[in-house]
Amino acid sequence: METTNKIAITPRRKFLAMMAQGGGLMALGGMIWTGYLEEAKSAPLILRPPGAVAEKDFMRLCIKCGQCVEACPYHTLSLAKPGDAKPMGTPFFKPREVPCYMCTDIPCVPVCPTGALDVKSVSKITEGVKELDITKARMGLAVVDVESCIAFWGIQCDACYRACPVMDSAIKLEYRRNERTGKHAYLTPIVNSLMCTGCGLCERACVTEKAAIHVLPLEIAKGAIGSHYIKGWEQGDEKRLEKTVSDVTTHTKRSEKSATDYLNTNEEMFK
């Protein structure tokens, strides 16, 4: 006759088991939270939908509802998943895979319930009537890698130029002589940062193995001149200094004359 020895579960053993389970759950939660923080930190190159406010405000306003993703008819937008190196649950797109096709009715923007996608930023007023204008979107800025772009080699290619929905405004072709051959010309793409919407159609159309033109977020693609540099040849540019000059303190007496007047006279600098 077989006998089974049952181990009595004492309160002490039950307590230790609960402690072990709790420790395991805490460790798992810590790993998930650490992964979330790491992905949140690695998101400076993320491209948001049209009308997205500044990234810091976007992260505060976006509730990760996914309505903009559902509204996109081209499946351009995706919600970030673990491993995407982007804040989880937030919408983004990869132009090389599926660019923004510049819908005139911009269905992804009006459905946003919190203002993370700002309708005003992609709207214009025509004859007193407010209407959507996708060309006002600034999702990013296209940047050309001149070393990889075959047009800069002298090979005729205008794929990005022809793919641009605002052709001759956002991307233009610059004509210049090929000094190497002396017979041919370069037709190189030049991006106008004031007109580029960041849709990524140019990046999608690029014929090279890895796109020679790619869209970057504006805060990364663009520099900042600073108020201390002005275009002396443009009379109106000096007005940028008017707001800052009054706040400047110096121990050296400043000339009351403008830089242009000083350079065009033979007077000594300090009198």
- As a percent range, the share of strand residues is 5-15%
Assign a percent range to the helix content: 10-25%
CATH structural class of the domain at 55-136: Alpha Beta
Note the gap between the termini.
119 Å
CATH topology of the domain at 55-136: Alpha-Beta Plaits
Largest sheet: 2 strands, antiparallel
Order of strands side by side in the largest beta sheet?
1-2
- Unreliable segments (pLDDT under 50, ≥5 consecutive)? none
CATH architecture term of the domain at 55-136: 2-Layer Sandwich
Shape: extended
- Please tell me the overall pLDDT: 83
Count of β-strands: 8
The SSE string, one letter per element, is HHHEEEEEHEEHEHHH
Count of alpha/pi helices:
8
Alpha-beta content class = alpha+beta
Radius of gyration: 29 Å
